[in-house]
User: Fold these one by one.
Assistant:
Number 1:
Amino acid sequence: MYNLARLTDRGLGVKKDHNVALKLLEQAAAQPPQHPIYEQYPNAGVAEAEHALGVRYFEGISVRKELSVAVYWYQRATDHGSAMAANNLGSMYLDGLAVDKNLEKAEQLLELAARRGNPLTMQTLAELFLSKNNFQMAQIWYNRACEADNVVAQQNRDQFAKEIEKRQQLMSRCSSNELEVVNGIEYFFSLYKPTNVPSVASDHSYIKDYKVLKEHANRGSITAKQLCDALEHFVQALNILLSFESLTKEQEDKFVYDLSRCYRIEPIVAQIPCEMFKRVSEVINRALCRCTKELNSIPSQLDEDVRLCYATLNMNSFELIDQFLASCKQKYPKSIYFFLLSGAINGFLRRPDVGLYNINNGLEIEPDNCELLYHKAVLLRHLTMNMNMDMDDAIKAYQTFLRVAPKDHRKVPEVYYEMAICYIQGYTPEVAVHWVKKLYTEGQEAEKSQLPCFLPYQSGNIAYLKPMLDMEFIQNIKAVPENNRKQRLTDPHRVEVIQKHREWEGKTLQEKYNRGHMVISTTLKPRIKQQTSKSLIGLKPITLREMDPTKDQVYNEYVLSVTIIEEAYSWIPSIHLVIEDENFDCERMLVYNFAEEQGEYLISKLYTIGSKMHIINPYLRIGAGDMKPTVRVDDFSSIVMQSESERILNMCRYCCQANASKACSKCQQARYCSKECQIMDWKLNKHKLICKNK
C-alpha cells in the first residue's frame, strides 16, 4: 500500500493524484506496526507511511501545512523504527519547531537515527559532538558517516579533522577557569539560536475564555475587547457551517465576512477544528473562484475579504502565498493586512529586507498599528544581525511599539525580552549586562499585566535570558557531562531495547503459566566466528558507543565491561539479557553454546540483575530479520564474571542504583528506590509485561 502511494504520488504506472496517494498513506499507516504472522519483524511500509505523512504535513504537500501534526506522525514513525523520522523529529526539537526546544531530546533522537543507519544524521551528530568538545565521538560518527557513503562528509573530511585539531589546541591552551568560561558561552549559545519560523497554533481554546475576557473588556481592557470582538465573528462564522450542510451564495458571503473580520481584529482566536478545516477551505476556495469569475477582477469588499481568508488559511505555504499577496497588494494598495502578511511571510523566508519594505508600506497607511510596529522591530533585528550592524534601530522600533501598545497586549513582555537579546547580540558584555538585567525585569513585570488566557506566559527567550542573570550559575557552570545517568534513562534506544526484551520475556512467562501457549524461536548461525582470549591482559577496553551499530563485527583484542540490568526467564535457544556499560548505554545480549543442563543455574544464579561481567572480543551482531544490533556471545568462555562483591545489590529496575528498598507489590521481584522510579518503569519501560511471579 505504501509503495502504491509512492507510485500514485509520482504518476508511475497509474494516474498521478496526490489526494489518492494521501489516502493510501493513511491506510498504510493504520496497519499494525508488527508483521501479522512474524511478530518479531516490522510490518513493512507502516513506519515508512507514517514518516511520509509527517513530511507531507511539515512541507504542506496536498494538505494544510501543520507542524504539530507532522510531530505526531514523525513520533509514530520513530516508535516503529524509522531512521528518517527520528532525524526529522530530532531536528524539530533542536530548533523548537512545534515543540518546546529540547537539546537533550534532540541529541537522543539524532543518535537514534544515526544508530539506525542514516548517513546524514551521522554527520549532524558528529558536528553536535564537536560543538560539545567531545572530540572522540565527533571523530567516530564522522568516520561512520563517510563509511556510509555520505558524499558531503567525504568531501569535507579533511576540513572536519582540522576543526577538531584546532579546537583541541585551543582547549590545551586554556586554563581551567578559561575552560569554564568557554563552556559557559557554548552552553548559552546552544540554548539560543534565532530562527525565523511561523508560530504554532496553540492548543488553548479562546472560546472558553470569552466570559472572563468580557469582564476585562468591561473594565476597560482594549486587548480583551479586541479578543471578544474577534471571537464573536469567529463563532458566527462557525455557526454558519454547523447549521447548514450546504451553503447558499449569501451564506458563503456571510461566512467569508465574519471570518475575515476575525482575522483583521485578532487572528489567534481563529482555531478551526481539524475536522472542519477541509470544509472551511472548500468554502473559501469557492468564494475566491466566484469573485475571480463574476467580478472580472473588479475590486470589491467580498473579494478583498476572501483573499485575506485564503492567504491567512494557507499562511504556512510561504512561496505560494508570497506570490498570491503580490496581486492582492496591487489590487488593494490601502489594505494594511496584505502588507502585514507579506512582511511576516518574507521574515519566514529569511528575507527581512523585503519583509521590512512591506511593513513600512503598511505603516504609511496606519502609523500606529501595533502588529505592524512589532513586525518592523523583529525584522530590523534580524536584518541588522545578518549584516553585523548595531541594534539601535531595532531597539528604537521596539520602544515605539511599547509607546503605542496597550499594557496587556500579548507581545509586550516578549518585546522586553527581545530587546534584551538585541543588547546581547549587538553590544559588548560590559554594556549589555546592565540593559539585559533591566529589560528582563521589566518583561517579568509586564507579564503581571497579561490577560489570564495568556498565562503562564510563553517565550522561547526566557530559557536563554534567565540563567544568564544568575551570576552564581555562570561562575559555577561546567560542561554538560556526557555520562549523565538521568539523561540516559529516557534515551529512545534504551527504552526500545528494554521494552522489546520485556515483550520477549513476557511471552516466556505466559508460556510458563499457560500450557497452551508456546513461543517459537529460531536463530541463524553467526556470520563471523568469535574467538576468546586466554587472558584479559593486553586487551583494550571498549564501550558500546565505540562499537558501530550498523556493522556486523567482532572487536578482536578488546574487552567490553558491562552490568546486567534486565534478566532472562528462559535459556532456549539462548539467554536473553540487557546490559549497560560505564556510559549508561545499553544493548541486547544473547548468550549461546552453553550446556543445556546449566541453563537454569545460569539465569537464576549467575546472569542476574546487578551482576557485572567482562566480554572478551565482543561480537556486535546485526540481526538478519530486524537489522538491529545485539551483543552476541557464541564462545561461552569469552565471558568473565566479576566478583560477587562488585555486584549491585537490590538494583532499582528503572535507575539501576543500588539498595532499592521498595518492591513491586504484585510480582515482588522488581525493586525501586522511589515511587517516581516505579511509575517511570511502568509507563516508559512497560513493567506490566513481566509483572508476574517467576
Number 2:
Amino acid sequence: MDQEALTSDHHGPIAVRRDENQRPEPVQAQYGARLKSVETIPTPHQPLRGVVMLQGRSESVLGVAWRRAAALGVRESGGIEVRRSVVEQDDKVGFFPAVSRLSAAWAGAGWLSRLWWVPILALAMAVRFYGLTAAAIWGDEGSSLLLSEYAVDDLWFHAAHDVHPPLYFFMLRGWIGLFGDGIWSIRGMSAIPGVVAVGLGIWLTRLLSTYRAAVLAGVLLALYPTAVRYSQEVRMYSLLAVWLLAATLALVYWVRRPERTRYLAAYVLLMAAGFYTHYFMALCVMVHWAYLGLLYSSQAPGRRLLLRPAWWCANVLIVVLYLPWLPNLVDLVQHVEQLKTGGDIGWEDPVTLISVPSMIWQFMLQDEGIGFWTPLFWSFPLLLIAVVGVTAWRDREAHRPAGLLALFFLLPLLLVYAVSFISPVFIERYLTAYALGLPIMVALAIDRLPKRLSRWGAAFLVLFISVELLGLKSNATVDDRDNFNVPVEFVNRNYQEGDRIVLSDMLWYLSYVYYDQTDAQLQLYTPPKPDGTSTRPNAYGFGTLVDQDGGRIYLDSLSVLPADTRRVWLISSTDLPDDFAPIPTDWRELLRQDGGGARARLFVLCRGPEPSQPEGCR
C-alpha cells in the first residue's frame, strides 16, 4: 500500500508519494539520524493534523531539509515522486510575489483572514451600483415592470405568453411591494444578485482550485463588463447567474461526496428555480451531464456517477417540479410564428464566421469589435479560447475542475451559435451567465502556470484586466440614446388635459409607461402594411401586455382620432423616414424634444372655422 507524507515550511506543504516497493535509502541515509517522524505541519490555510519532531533543529530547518531530501530522492533514486498539493499552490513564493506577500500579510491578520473575500465583494458592489440610474429604463425593462404590476393569477397567465418564465416577475412584484418602484430600487434587485454571483464564483473557484485562484477569479468576476451590465437592468439575467453557479456548486459537492444526498436535493431545487427563471437553463443541464460524462472513464465500474440512480432520480424530480409550467412552454413553442411577428424572437441577424469572436468582444469590451484591426479582432478572442482549451486539456486532477469550467463557458456558447444558423438566438444577454466561466477559467490557468512562466502569466492578467476596464468605461458611458426619459419628462411638463399621446413603437410604449405622469390613455400607432396586413400586436410576447386593452390602445390611422381632439403628442424615432408620415396637412407642430433616440412632438389640430381653432393655429 502506498504511503503518503506531507511536510511544510513557510513555503507550504510538499506532498511526497513513496512507492511501496521502493526503498527510500537516499533520504534515510542523509536525514535518518535526525528525522524521527514526519506528518503534516499546518499552514495558514491548513489545520494542525500532525506533529513534527526534529532533534536539535527548528521546524523551518526541517522544512528545508525535507524539501531537499525529497528533491534528492527524485533526482538520485527515482523512488520518490514530489507533487504539489493544493495548499502548496496557495503559499508558493515567486509566482506573483506581490500577491504572495499580500496573501501572507492577510493570513497573519487573525480572524480577519477568514474574511478575505469581503473586499472583493465590496469591489463588485461598487462597480455594479456605480451609475445604476444613469441610463433610462428601456423597452425590455419596461416589460418587466408592466408584468410585475399584474395580480398573481394574471401574472402567471401573461408570463405564459411572454418569452420568459414567471419567477423573476413574481420576485420583482414582491420587491416593489417592499421597496417601491424607484429606478434605484428596481435595478438594485438585479445588482444584488450580481454581487452574489461574484461570491458564488469565488466559492466555486476555491472549491475547485487554490486560494490564490479564488482571489484572482473574484477580482476578474467583479470587473467583468458583461456581468456588470446585466446586473444593472431590470431583467432576470443576474438572477439566472446565481442559480447556475449555485447549482454547479451543489453538483461539485455531490461529485466529491456522492453519499450525501442533501447536495442533490439542493441541486434539484436550484435547477428548478433556474428553469422558472429562464429557458436557457436547459444549457446548464447539458453542461452538467457532459461533465459527468467527462468523469465517466476515470471512475471505476460501480462508482460512475453518471449511472447512479440518485442522479437520474434528481433529474426526474427537476422535471416533476417543472410540470406546472410545462403546458405553458409547450403552448409557447406552438406559437413561435406569433412571437416572430411581434418581433420578440427572430429579430437577430443570422450568425456568420465572425459571430463567436464578436460575442467574446461583447463580453469583455461591450463592443462587437467589428471595426477593429482584423488581426486584433481575431487574436484576442482566439487567445482566450486557446487558454480555456489548453487548460482543460492539461487537466489531470481527479475531478477535472478545468474541464467543468471549460464546458460551462464553451458548450453553451457553441451550441447556441450552432442553433442560430437555424433560428438566430445568439444574443449576449442570453449567454452572459455562462460567460462567467471565462474569468474563472483565466484565473485557474494563471494560477497553474509554473514559476518559469510567471512573467507571461502576469502579462496576460494585466491584459485581461485592462480590457475589462475598457469595457467598464464603455458600459458606464451614457450618451443621448440612453436618455429616453428626457422627451417623456418634457411631455409631462407641457401636457394639458385632453391631450392625446400616440407612440409609434412597442418598445417606446413599454418604456414610456414607467415615466408617464399624465392621465392620458397612451395609444400605440399600428398602421396596416401596404398589402393590408395588420401590424397590431398579437397575444404573445410583448403583445400580451396590451392586447386585452387593444380596443383603447391601438390606433391604425391618425385620421381616426376623435373629432374633438385639439392637441396630439407624437412619440417616434429620430431616424428617417418619419414613423407617422404623412402628417395630416391641418396639423401644426408647436413643440419638439429629442432624447434617447426618440422624438416627442406636440401638434395642434387646426380644424374648423378659424375662431374655434386652438391656440397655436393663428
Number 3:
Amino acid sequence: MKQPAMQTSTQHTMLPTFLEKSNSSMNIYGQDPKKKRLSSEQLESLENSFQEEIKLDPDRKMKLARELGLQPRQIAVWFQNRRARWKGKQLERLYDALKQEFDVVSREKHKLQQEVLLH
C-alpha cells in the first residue's frame, strides 16, 4: 500500500499550530498569560464557605459567584481543588496518628520480648 507523499512548501514552515497563531492570547502552553489570581478577600470568602460545608450545591455556587464576581465554573473548580488538598491533609494526619500508635505498640512489644528473654 502506497503512503501519500508529504507536501512541503518553501513559504510555510512546519511549525506547531500554537506557534503559527501569533495574534492569539494563549502562550506556548495553551494558557492565558493574563490569568488573574483570586484576591485575598475572594480567597477568604471561599475558605469560610468551605469551612462551613466542603460540598458545593448549585444554589450556593451561584450565590458565591455573584457575591465574588467570579464565574460559577471558577467557584466549582476552586472547591474541587480545595477538597483535593483537604483530603491530602486528612490522609497525612491519619498517617501521623497511625504511625504514632504503631510506635507505641512496637515499643511495648519490644519491652515484652525483653521481659520474656530475662525470665
Number 4:
Amino acid sequence: MVDHRGLVAWTRIRHVSDQLPHDDANENDVTVRYWAAARAAAGVAEETVSALTLAELLDEIGRRHRDRDRFDDVISICSILVGETPVGAKDPAQVPLPRGVNVEFLPPFAGG
C-alpha cells in the first residue's frame, strides 16, 4: 500500500500558494524543482528563477550551477514538465513560462 498523504499535503499547499497575490516586480518568477539525481546535481531541491521561456530558464540555471560537476549532464537527460505538461522534444525557446508556473526536472528512473 502506498502512502499518498505527503503528496496530498503538497498538492494542497501548491493550490493555496497558486492563489496568493504575486509581486509585480517579479512577474516572471517561476519555481524550479529538481528530483532525485537532478536534486543531487543541483545541490538544491527548489529555486526561483526569472525567465519568460524555457530556454532562458535553462541558461540561468546553467549559470547558477556551472561549478557543479554533473549538473549539465544530468539536466540534459531529464524529462521536463512545465506545470503538468511534458516539454518533450519542443524547442526550449518556443516554450513560454507563465508567471508562477512550476518547472520540474525529472531524471530517468527504473522501477515498475
